[in-house]
Each structure stands twice: as C-alpha cells, then as structure tokens.
Amino acid sequence: MTARENALRWLEQDTDELFKKGIQALLDGPERDLEDAFYRDLEFGTGGMRGVMGVGSNRVNKYTFGMATQGLSNYLKQSFPGEQIKVAIAYDCRNNSQAFARMVAEIFSANGIEAYLFSDLRPTPQLSFAVRELNCHSGIVITASHNPPEYNGYKVYWNDGAQIVAPQDIGIIDEVRKIEQLNQINFKANPSLIHELGKEMDDAFVKASLAQRRSSEVNKNLKIVLTSLHGTSITLLPRLLEEAGYENVLIVEEQAVPDGNFPTVKSPNPEEREALNMALELADRENADLVIGTDPDSDRIGVAVRNNEGEMILLNGNQTGVILTDYLLQNTALKGDEFIAYTIVSSELFGDVAMHYGVDSQICLTGFKHIAKLIKDNEGDKTFIGGGEESYGFMIGDFVRDKDALTAALIFCDWLGQVLQDGENAERYLGRIYKRHDLYQEHLISLTKKGKDGSEEIAQMMRDLRTNPPASLGGDEIVRIDDINNGTSKDLKTGHITPIDLPSSNVLQFYTSSGSKISARPSGTEPKIKFYFSVRKDWESSASLKAQQKILDNTIQDIIKDLGVS
Predict the structure, then answer these.
(1) What is the pLDDT of residues 338-390, one digit of tens each?
(2) Residue 440 to residues 309, 433, 516: CA-CA distances in angstroms?
(3) CA 502, 160, 384: angle at the middle one, nearest 5?
(4) How many angstroms separate the CA atoms of 143 and 148, rounded?
C-alpha cells in the first residue's frame, strides 16, 4: 500500500474533523510530507512506541496511541483471565503528554481495567515503583525521554515493574497489529475505574529511595546545583535530597518550570554539554561542588564535578556508572551472592570493578529492560547491587526496575560528599580506579537519519559493515567480530566461530588487538544509528591522567576517520 492509499484509507475512518483536515492537507501538500506521515504504521516495538506528534499513521496521535492501548488491553485480558486487571499510568512534561495519559486511562477503563493515573507529571522510575507498590499487571509512561520537542512516546511495563521483554513484547505487538480499524478502539470511559495517584505514592517512593543509601552521614558543606531541564525531576529530587540532609542545593530556576517546548535548551539531553550550560554557569558563580542534570522523564542523569584544577568537568555515562558501582560495592557488606550488570555497548570497566570486589558481573543487551530481566532471572539466588549503561542510566537495588536518575543522584551526592570530606576529589578517585585496572576512554557518535530514506540508509550502513567489515581501525588489527543479530562471535585469527548467549539484536561489534571495542547499533526508539567507541591502555604512572586521555582521544578520532562516520 502506498502512502497516498494509506492516507485515503485513514480519511474514510471515524476520526475527528480536525484530524481529517490534517490528512487532507497532507494529501494536497508536498509528496515527501505525505510519504513520511503515511508510508508505514508507527511501529509498536519491543518497548512501546515513539515518534513525531502529528497527523498520520506514522505519527504519535490519539489514534495511534489508542490502537496501542486497545491492543495492550486485549493482551492483558488474555494474560490474566478472571483477574481484575490494574494498570499504573504516568506522564512527563511534553506537549500533549497529560491529554494522552488521560485518554489512555479512559481506554483502559472502557475495557474494564482499573487505571491508576498520576495527578500530575512524575518521573519514569516512580512509575516503575508504583507498578510494584500497587501490584499492577502493567504500567504506561507517556514520554519521549530526551528526544526533541516534536516527539512523544509510549513505554509499556509489566507486573515486575520492568519494561516488557519476551514473550510479552511479541504478544502485545501481535495484538496491536490486529487493531486495523479505528472503530476497534473502545473510547467509552468508565470513570469509576480511574483512580488518582499523588502524595502517598510520592512518600512511598522517597522512603524506598532513601533506604538505598549506604550511610546516613551527610557532608552538609556539599554544594549541589540541580537542573530538571524543564522535566519531571523537579517534582521529587529536591525533596529527596532535603530529606537526606543536604542543605546547600541550588536549583536552576529558569529550567525548573516543566515545559514541553524546552525553551532554554536545543535538546533536553543531559548527555550533551549545551543542556547543562546554565547549571554549569550557576555552579561557577556559587562555587558549587557538583552539577546534576536529568532528562524530561528523569531516568537519565548527567553530572559535572571539579577536577584537580578546580574546573567543572562533565563525566560520561560510563564514568558515572563505574563510580557508583565502585562506591556501592565498597560500602556493601558482601555475602558472596551479589551481582552487578551492564550492557554490551558499555565500558568493560564495569566488569573489572566487580571482579576487584569478587562480585559477579552480568552483561546484557542495550536497554534497562534487559538489566531488569537479569534481576528477575536471578531472584532467590543472587542479590542485585546496581547496574548501568553508557547512555547516562543507572539503577540501584531492585525497588525500581528501570534506570533511576533520582536515586542515582542521591547516592552520587553521598559518594562525592565522602570523597571531599576525606580531602580528595572526583578526578583523583576516578584516577585510582583507572590505575587499579586500565585507563578507558569512551565516545559516542549518533547519526540522525529521518524518514523513509533515512531508515533505508541506516539499514544499508549495517549491511555494508556486515558484508565488508574493516580489517583494522585506528592502526589496530580487528581480531574479533561479534554479530549479535545472528548470535555469533568470530575469531579472525583462527576463523573459529562461537555462539553468543544473548537474544538477537541488530548490533555489530569489532574488537581490536589492543582491546578497543567499537559497536554499531541502530536505535530502537529514534531515527538514528549509533557508533560506540571504547578504547583502553595500560596506566602509565609517570604520565598525567589528562595526557593519557589525550592519547586515547586521538586513537578514537583515528578510528572514526577509518569508519568514515564523523
């Protein structure tokens, strides 16, 4: 079916007049706009759906979200026959998020499902917590995470508080695909089945988060700058730090007001320095020790700390995660059954740190739903301490089953407060970890390829890498190629192929003779292909950390040039 044929099919269906006018405008306008809006149905993937808001089958709107909710409702009733099904629903600051969340609750209620809807915007980790706290069968967050303002999304959680994995993901996808006509969606709400969540759930979350601390001691001199980047952390993070005992907390007021247009930043992504500029300026004016920034739904955390020269430096996601892992393991009474987790594109330093403390480390696919599945798979046998990934996400304990910027921020404050109290600083602490193991340096390149043409370009890039892989990168020979898509690891020296014990995923990884790891992976939630670079070298005691990092930065640039992806 062509995009035009699909648009005409939608025009014939029972939509509101404004939506019909939008379809007609696309039919009458540029062909490229029509193609992008209707060339496919917005895909309900393995975690939900995300896309640009607007009119079209490939857009986020009340009807595409409605089809998703109806399909999920049908699957829940099949999965829990005879039970009164309960679903928790949260939403972030994005444009239309509140209206979408209300509509989702109404569709659930129309299908006889109890909907527990937060009264106002709330962080994603709190939704995961609420699913478990209320013994819900599922949960929904309306959010597009750190994406630009024109995006919104729909994340689905199962009864363990984690985002859906097999077999639920495939089952839900099948049911959503069965919703082919809009008249299959039941929009007739049953208000008696919609319940409001508010202060009581806030209180419960704060209590559970505080319980993850390794010490109740507080460095009251620690000066912290917070920015919510117009998102949800403003609802809970200041309170959490206050109840922990931190008194010197400065908030970037210009970014404290929730706003889906994100007026003060190009992108509300704490991975990007620009997003934290206002916080960094405030930190310098007030001589603060720490900057913490969170994305709109508060699952990602970006931090900046002072280096040996007293300058604010940004830590990458791997560095933040490794510091938290080291702190947690150092301050936990280990019994021998503990484990940490990290993802295949993250730094191997996670595993090195765990090994130092005699703790098991487990590796999984990208995405916290896979870390959460490891917790579920190990329940009763192993105790989960924490886990992280390079994309600025970390999870502490198992009370939440998704990345949690709120609790991570609290524990990071505890760590830095202790470090400063001991007369040290963050850079020297990180340096000691590198000295104990190897020096690691990471980098990410994310290439945006929008629309149908972009999707095809990404697919071709992955095909080219598979059919014509590089023989060397950055002057180092490629010695191993892991293709997670077909589950094989090939030793290029011997030709020996061994199976990889991971679910299939469109990821390619190249390992060099010096221990570098380069990964290529199309995003599952954005029109992007991502290249992850992790290089390592022995620590040279005679050289400064900065000088050695410069060497590794140069290696990364050489690899990027060889790949031609800059």
Answers:
(1) 999 999 999 999 999 999 999 999 999 998 999 999 999 999 999 999 999 99
(2) 21, 10, 9
(3) 65
(4) 11
Instruction: Please identify which residue in the block is written with the tokens 């607007």.
Output: 54
367 near 390, Cβ under 8 Å? Answer: no
Cα distance between residue 318 and residue 436, in whole Å? 16
Strand pairing report for 114-118 and 194-197:
parallel
CATH domain 223-436 topology: Alpha-D-Glucose-1,6-Bisphosphate; Chain A, domain 3 (3.40.120)
The answer on pLDDT for 525 being more than 90 is: no
Q: Residue 47's pLDDT is what?
A: 77
- For residue 441, what are the β-bridge partners? 535
Distance of CA 129 to the CA centre of its chain: 16
Mind telling me the catalytic residues? 145
What's CA 45's distance to the chain center, in Å? 15
Is the predicted pLDDT of residue 24 greater than 90, yes or no? yes
Q: How far apart are CA 392 and CA 423, in angstroms?
A: 27
Q: Are 321 and 292 in contact (CB under 8 A)?
A: no
Same fold, 44-203 and 223-436: yes
Count Cβ atoms within 10 A of the Cβ of residue 255 and give its class: 0-12 exposed, 13-18 middle, 19 or more buried. Answer: buried
| pTM, to two decimals | 0.94
pLDDT at res. 433:
95
Give strand ranges (E) for 53-171: 86-91, 114-118, 138-142, 151-158
Say which residues have a Cβ less than 8 Å from residue 456's Cβ, sequence separation at least 6.
none
Q: Is 494 in contact with 501 (CB distance < 8 Å)?
A: no
Cα–Cα distance for residue pair 253/228, rounded to 1 Å: 9
CA separation for the pair 347, 388 (Å, rounded): 10
How is the chain split into domains, by residue range? 1-39, 44-203, 223-436, 439-563
Question: Was domain 44-203 assigned CATH 3.30.710.10?
Answer: no
Of 94, 127, 256, the closest CA to residue 202 belongs to 127
Query: Architecture of domain 439-563 in CATH?
Result: 2-Layer Sandwich (3.30)
Question: For 40-99, what is each residue's pLDDT tens digit?
Answer: 999 887 778 999 999 999 999 999 999 999 999 999 999 999 999 999 999 999 999 999
The span from the CA of 503 to the CA of 374, in Å, is: 13
Chain centroid, CA 240 distance in Å = 21
CB 146 within 8 A of CB 271: yes
